[in-house]
Fold:
Amino acid sequence: MGLKVAVIGAGTMGHALALVFALGGHEVRLTDSSMTVLDKAGGLMETALATLTMAGEAPREADAEWLHHAVTRLPVLAEAVEEADLIIEAIIEQPDAKRALFAEIDRLAPETSIIASNTSYLDPFPLIPARRQSRALILHWYTPPYLVDLVDVVGGPECDPEVVAFCVQFCRDMGKRPVVMRKFVPGYIANRVQSAIALEVQKLLDEGVATASEIDTAIIEGIALRLPILGVLAKADFTGLAFTQTSLANRMYDPPPVRGKCDTVDALVAQGRTGVMAGAGFYDWPGETAEVLEARDRRLMALKRALRQIGTMAGEGREA
Structure:
């Protein structure tokens, strides 16, 4: 039996999460403080759903009309959280905004509602009212969540373990891969590793070592081919840990420090080149945003299908 799920925030993550939950058989209500964002969310969900359906990743009957009934877009928070079993917070990463929202949820939502934050780097638990802590946790998803299956699950310091277990099963029932973390750390696992890579990449850019496309080529052709099959630690086993030990001892440079800025990124943002949504970033992205996202999604689906056939080796061995 499906849950009543309220998704708060209809932007980049929120609208995509609403689609995930709808495809998972749940009754979804999507809300946002901006009617413009809420209106745009409908078209973005329809485009993503059509791409999934065409590729056989969603049922044929899941068309635009089905989506309209499966996801109700509501401009009023009170209507969205009414009788909600699960509330997903997916708004901007600003403490004051989240604190104010959690206070409203506390005032409006049923006592039994589970409150889950999609926050990436901000610790949400100090912002959630005390009486809600036993049913508060993090469910952190990755873009686009209808294709990327990883979900970080982090219980709050006072969260009931049964709530964590319930949400883990909730994710698994939708075909997702939840990873339960023992405690909250900003960025979780995948984002922290990505951040370490990004720091090195930004340093290479600022020092003029290579262009954006040359750096991406090195990563795609050198790193990415092995990561889906082996991960990082299983790859180290294949390379040999003695070699890893020697490499660490012989390292001739220090990893770049966290500077809080990248000169190359600052220059692009100043030019209005802020990424795909703006039509340009490190690269030019001509055409409608929905078309660019669809092209990405088609490639990700092809890769997922291939990986299903190939399988992975990470986790096949017995952990030490």
In short: The mean pLDDT is 93.
